[in-house]
């Protein structure tokens, strides 16, 4: 007789196991099966003539036994045994972590192996990459059925743990038992939520950029999951309106006004943490926002204070030069913060002032005319031929003065019932054919919008101007006087005679009577 398989068999729990007992040389053998210590067979027996089959379907932990097949033929008995050794290692371990892994907090890794038999031969290892975190054996944990075995390990999660593999290795080591596999493993990559951290802004091509060139600011941060990025400019309330894609802010054509401090704020919605980074951007440009102002005005009165201010912006710093140009003469003026002050303006300060703004990227100039208004000064009055003339002569009065704007002049006679203003031509007044009535005091008023000055001129007209061509008019005048005088004498004789008669004389009555 023989038992197949013979001697020793290794079976995996859950599979089907058949033990066959057969014999030769006996026509009608009798078969029987039993276990050591008379445990239940845990299977079904089928006899067919010269062989008998014990089928265990499925094999369970209770089938771990020595099975004895007995054959009786013609009162002769023979026995053979087979040892059934069992194991159960059906699946890879299952590895899990806590729901949310946050850097800086405690993370727990759990590894389970299901339906293991015999569990007392099981070893579980937890590894991070190649480093063993934890190991556990279940020696002495004897059981007659399959079990689920678990191992857990907790550790403080670090940023560098993100993406690393945690592996659970299960080993079922039974000496002398031949089965595969004896080792199973499962790996899991750690998804560690962290950050944002180590945030900074990368400026391309750099913090210094030329006006008109493109500029890109990239907000670099370490965060899992990826952080939300918000851009803003220092001292501006609203977010930046430039083109923003993900964590990159783009300025296609940088302008001088784009200079300033840019801030990126990153937020991790899982860790609920926020971090900020900033960068100072300087857009280099030729002089900008150039101004040339004159305070209080570009037109001032003599003696007033006036300040000329030159301002500009630009990077690199703008050099400001203020010059005064008078004809071909150029004078460089010393300024303080672009300001030049004239405490008491004089006419010599009037002229063209020019501000030149320069840096290595360009230059620009502005100019202004400063007008200093001066009242009439240094008045000179000349009277031709003299202030004392004879009737019939012409008198010329010439006036010259120093003023800005040019002065106006008025000549008028004092103590006139009707004010007479004489016309002026280029500062010259002319009195034609003067008479004694022209004698008197004259006022010469020289004025402009700033002030005035008055000069007094005394004119005296005496005698007559005698000339040969004036004899004939004198004869005519004498004749006229004679013609008038004769009638007057006749009247006087007549009146005299009447007076003798009346004994009195009244010139008034006589004149009235005559009339």
TrEMBL record:
Natural source organism: Phasianus colchicus (Common pheasant)
UniProt superkingdom: Eukaryota
Chain ranges of the Ig-like domain: 1-85, 196-280, 287-373, 376-460
SUPFAM superfamilies in the cross-refs: Immunoglobulin (SSF48726)
Transmembrane parts of this sequence: 471-495
GO MF term list: integrin binding
Record protein name field: Ig-like domain-containing protein
UniProt KW keywords: Cell adhesion, Cell membrane, Disulfide bond, Glycoprotein, Immunoglobulin domain, Membrane, Repeat, Signal, Transmembrane, Transmembrane helix
Membrane topology of the entry: Single-pass type I membrane protein
Keyword Signal assigned: yes
GO cellular component, one term: plasma membrane
Major localisation: membrane
Iron-sulfur recorded as keyword: no
Lineage of producing organism: Eukaryota, Metazoa, Chordata, Craniata, Vertebrata
SMART domains documented for this protein: IG, IGc2
InterPro entries: ICAM_VCAM, ICAM_VCAM_N, Ig-like_dom, Ig-like_dom_sf, Ig-like_fold, Ig_C2-set, Ig_I-set, Ig_sub
BP GO terms, sorted: cell-cell adhesion
Localization (cell): Cell membrane
Gene: VCAM1
């Amino acid at each position: 007789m023989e038992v197949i398989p013979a001697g020793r068999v290794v079976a995996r729990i859950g599979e089907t196991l058949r033990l066959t007992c057969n014999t030769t040389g006996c026509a009608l053998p009798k078969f029987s099966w039993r276990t050591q210590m008379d445990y239940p067979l845990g299977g079904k027996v089928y006899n067919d003539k010269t062989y008998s089959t014990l089928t265990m379907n499925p094999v369970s932990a209770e089938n771990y036994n020595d099975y004895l097949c007995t054959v009786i033929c013609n009162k002769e008995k023979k026995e053979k045994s087979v040892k059934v050794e069992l194991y159960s290692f059906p699946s890879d371990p299952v590895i899990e972590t806590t729901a949310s892994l946050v850097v800086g907090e405690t993370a727990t890794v759990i590894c389970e192996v299901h339906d293991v038999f015999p569990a007392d031969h099981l070893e579980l290892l937890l590894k991070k990459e190649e480093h063993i975190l934890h190991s556990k054996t279940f020696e002495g944990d004897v059981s007659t059925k399959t079990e689920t075995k678990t191992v857990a390990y907790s550790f403080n999660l670090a940023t560098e743990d993100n993406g690393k593999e945690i592996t659970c290795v299960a080993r079922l080591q039974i000496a002398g038992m031949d089965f595969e596999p004896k080792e199973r493993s499962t790996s899991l990559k750690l998804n560690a939520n962290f950050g944002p951290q180590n945030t900074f802004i990368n400026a391309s091509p750099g913090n210094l950029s030329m006006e008109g060139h493109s500029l890109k600011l990239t907000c670099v941060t370490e965060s899992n999951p990826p952080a939300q990025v918000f851009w803003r400019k220092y001292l501006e309330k609203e977010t930046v309106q430039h083109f923003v894609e993900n964590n990159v802010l783009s300025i296609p054509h940088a302008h001088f006004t784009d200079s300033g401090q840019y801030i990126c704020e990153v937020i991790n919605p899982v860790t609920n943490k926020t971090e900020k980074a900033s960068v100072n951007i300087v857009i280099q440009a030729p002089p900008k926002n150039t101004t040339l102002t004159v305070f209080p005005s570009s037109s001032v009165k003599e003696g007033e204070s006036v300040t000329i201010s030159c301002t500009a912006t630009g990077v690199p710093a703008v050099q400001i030069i203020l010059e005064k140009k008078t004809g071909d003469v150029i004078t460089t003026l010393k300024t303080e913060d672009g300001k030049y002050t004239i405490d008491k303006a004089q006419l010599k300060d009037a002229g063209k002032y020019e501000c030149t703004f320069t840096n290595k990227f360009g230059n620009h100039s502005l100019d202004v005319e400063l007008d200093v208004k001066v009242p009439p000064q240094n008045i000179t009055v000349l009277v031709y031929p003299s202030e004392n003339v004879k009737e019939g002569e012409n008198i010329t009065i010439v006036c010259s003065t120093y003023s800005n704007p040019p002065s106006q002049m008025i000549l008028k006679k004092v103590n006139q019932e009707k004010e007479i203003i004489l016309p002026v031509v280029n500062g010259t007044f002319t009195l034609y054919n003067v008479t004694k009535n022209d004698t008197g005091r004259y006022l010469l008023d020289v004025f402009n919008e700033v002030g005035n000055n008055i000069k007094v001129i005394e004119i005296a007209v005496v005698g007559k101007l005698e000339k040969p061509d004036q004899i004939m008019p004198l004869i005519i005048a004498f004749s006229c006087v004679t013609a008038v005088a004769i009638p007057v004498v006749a009247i006087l004789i007549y009146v005299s005679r009447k007076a003798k008669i009346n004994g009195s004389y009244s010139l008034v009555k006589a004149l009235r009577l005559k009339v």
